[in-house]
């Protein structure tokens, strides 16, 4: 059996082997895939834990256009109507998690009178890109109506690529302290995710897992990533497309928690050097329209 740590290192080295290579937007031979946490994106103005105005939604839409991705996994979006305020319906099809809202959103921290809205996972897929929907990975919720489901699609602009959008449990960004109530929950999500990656590998599918992992996976020997990467089957081993690159979205946090991770077959189609973090055109951090910055990569079709 191939040792998982060695296999992971080999795949990661392959992904970064040509870090100096760049690609241009609009390359018809590649598929640009991104993930973006939109921070409490509500359908209506003035609602949710980040209340917004018409101008705020218009700014988000301009950034979505500048990101110019073919497929965007998104998180923290109330519903389809909210997503379509950012992703122009004339350009993108929106695919939402089918998890029903729990209806248990409490008051936003430090914002009296504002309540947490439904936080759903989904995709915005550029019109003209063929895709099919697979069953949501509802097991990631562990039976808790407040935990997010994974959204699973296959895009087939060229060779099929299976994409799973996720938003994992927050609060356990490193380590595995049993006294931390969030860590057991996050680690209980690992077998569900591992079962999905192993099923894809056994069926010979090129796959990608992307989204807000709420975890600093790139840390040396991260326990959560090691739990996923047991090396059986070998093609299920996940590699982080960001490699050892530092995050630039926030001055205080230099480690990513948003990742695009690839299995072996997906990694073989990754365009070397294509990983990018979109930092809102260099706007000052205080003017960022979300507390996360999108990250993206390109795959050969």
Task: Give a structural overview.
The protein is an alpha+beta fold and 301 residues long. The protein is 21% helix and 24% strand. The chain has helices at residues 4-15, 54-67, 80-84, 182-202, 223-228, 264-267, and strands at 30-41, 71-77, 92-96, 120-126, 131-137, 150-155, 161-167, 207-212, 239-240, 258-262, 276-277, 295-300. The strands form two sheets. A six-stranded mixed sheet has the order 3-4-2-1-12-11. A six-stranded mixed sheet has the order 5-6-7-8-10-9. Helix 2 links the parallel strand 1 (30-41) and strand 2 (71-77).
Give a brief description.
21% of the residues lie in helices and 24% in strands.
Strand content: 15-25%
Average residue pLDDT: 92
Report the strand count. 12
Q: Tell me the overall shape.
A: globular
Portion of residues within helices: 10-25%
Radius of gyration: 18 Å
Distance between the termini: 31 Å
Low confidence ranges: 1-25
Strand order of the largest sheet: 3-4-2-1-12-11
Estimated structural class:
alpha+beta
**Oligomeric state:** single chain
SSE arrangement, N to C: HEHEHEEEEEHEHEEHEE
Q: What is the count of helical runs?
A: 6
**Biggest sheet character:** 6 strands, mixed
What attributes does this structure have?
301 residues; 6-stranded mixed β-sheet; disordered N terminus
Topology:
Blueprint: H1 4-15, E1 30-41, H2 54-67, E2 71-77, H3 80-84, E3 92-96, E4 120-126, E5 131-137, E6 150-155, E7 161-167, H4 182-202, E8 207-212, H5 223-228, E9 239-240, E10 258-262, H6 264-267, E11 276-277, E12 295-300
Parallel strand pairs: 1-2, 7-8
Antiparallel strand pairs: 1-12, 2-4, 3-4, 5-6, 6-7, 8-10, 9-10, 11-12
């Amino acid at each position: 059996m191939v040792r998982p740590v060695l296999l992971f290192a080999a795949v990661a080295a392959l992904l970064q082997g040509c870090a100096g290579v760049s690609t241009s937007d609009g390359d018809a031979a590649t598929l640009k895939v991104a993930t973006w946490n939109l921070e409490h994106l509500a359908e209506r103005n003035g609602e949710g834990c980040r209340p917004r105005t018409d101008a705020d939604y218009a700014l988000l839409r301009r950034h979505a256009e500048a990101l110019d991705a073919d497929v965007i996994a998104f998180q923290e979006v109330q519903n389809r109507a909210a997503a379509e305020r950012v992703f122009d319906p004339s350009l993108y099809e929106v695919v939402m998690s089918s998890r029903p809202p729990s209806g248990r959103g409490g008051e936003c921290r430090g914002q009296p009178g504002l309540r947490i809205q439904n936080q759903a996972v989904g995709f915005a897929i550029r019109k003209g890109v063929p895709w099919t929907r697979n069953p949501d990975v509802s097991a990631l919720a562990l039976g808790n109506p407040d935990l997010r489901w994974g959204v699973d699609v296959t895009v087939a602009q060229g060779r099929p690529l299976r994409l799973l959008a996720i938003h994992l449990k927050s609060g356990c960004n490193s380590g595995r302290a049993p006294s931390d109530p969030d860590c057991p929950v996050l680690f209980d999500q690992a077998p569900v995710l591992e079962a999905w990656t192993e099923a894809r590998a056994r069926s010979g599918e090129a796959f990608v897992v992307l989204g807000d992992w709420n975890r600093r996976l790139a840390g040396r020997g991260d326990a959560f990533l090691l739990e996923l990467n047991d090396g059986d089957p070998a093609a299920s081993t996940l590699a982080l497309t960001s490699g050892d690159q530092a995050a630039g979205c926030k001055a205080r946090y230099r480690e990513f928690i948003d990742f695009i991770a690839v299995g072996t077959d997906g990694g073989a189609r990754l365009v070397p050097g294509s990983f990018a973090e979109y930092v809102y055109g260099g706007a000052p951090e205080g003017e960022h329209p979300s507390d996360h910055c999108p990250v993206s990569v390109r795959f050969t079709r």
